[in-house]
Amino acid sequence: MLNNNIFIRKFNNCDREDIRRISCDTAFLEEPRKVFFDDDEILADALTLYFTDYEPDSCFVAVKNDKIIGYIIGTTDVKLMQKIFFIRIIPLLIIKALNKRIIFKRNTLNFLIHILLSLLKGEFIRPDFSKKYPATLHINIDKAFRRQNIGKQLIEYYLKFLKEKNVSGVHFGVISESAKEFFIKLGFNILFRSKLSYLRYYLGKFIPYYILGNLLK
């Protein structure tokens, strides 16, 4: 049990839409997402589908008054996640995008072009940390419930879950200085750092990219 009648519990399927909603609300550094992407269904699929549909046992939610106010989702095996994502999820996203014709909409096309430019520049090349840190996580809190210690509690809950699974370590990426500082305070270390340009056309600046990790044994 947490403060203010907030609970953390295992994910179940009825939580899926709330997780998808929060994931969209908090994407793109909380800038208006429609500036970058025109379809919430596809965006939510890209952010959450693997976790909720292929590894639900590694997903947990924070609840207050029967309302989902935050989540932590992840995997104990990044290599398996990447395999399923490329073989099953990416083709699904492409088919949906073509059927909905969103890749021809101005904002989405502009965003995808800048993602491609970053890719061609090698900005998404990073070391493979999966041997020592085989797990990953993704955490988000509803804006109305920030600064209530919920994120810290979700992280601690998830790390305990990983330790019980005998997972040796966890790593993940963040694209903000505040997120980096939050995880450092919780004992995570910076494993890799770089800068990304794919949002520069809108934000007017590069965004930082950090990979953080925590060895659990």
From TrEMBL:
PANTHER family: O-GLCNACASE, PROTEIN O-GLCNACASE. Residues 6-208 form the N-acetyltransferase domain. It comes from the Bacteria. InterPro entries: Acyl_CoA_acyltransferase, Glycosyl_Hydrolase_84, GNAT_dom. This is N-acetyltransferase domain-containing protein. One of its GO terms (molecular function) is acyltransferase activity, transferring groups other than amino-acyl groups. Pfam families: Acetyltransf_10. It comes from Candidatus Infernicultor aquiphilus. Gene3D superfamilies: 3.40.630.30. One of its GO terms (biological process) is glycoprotein metabolic process.
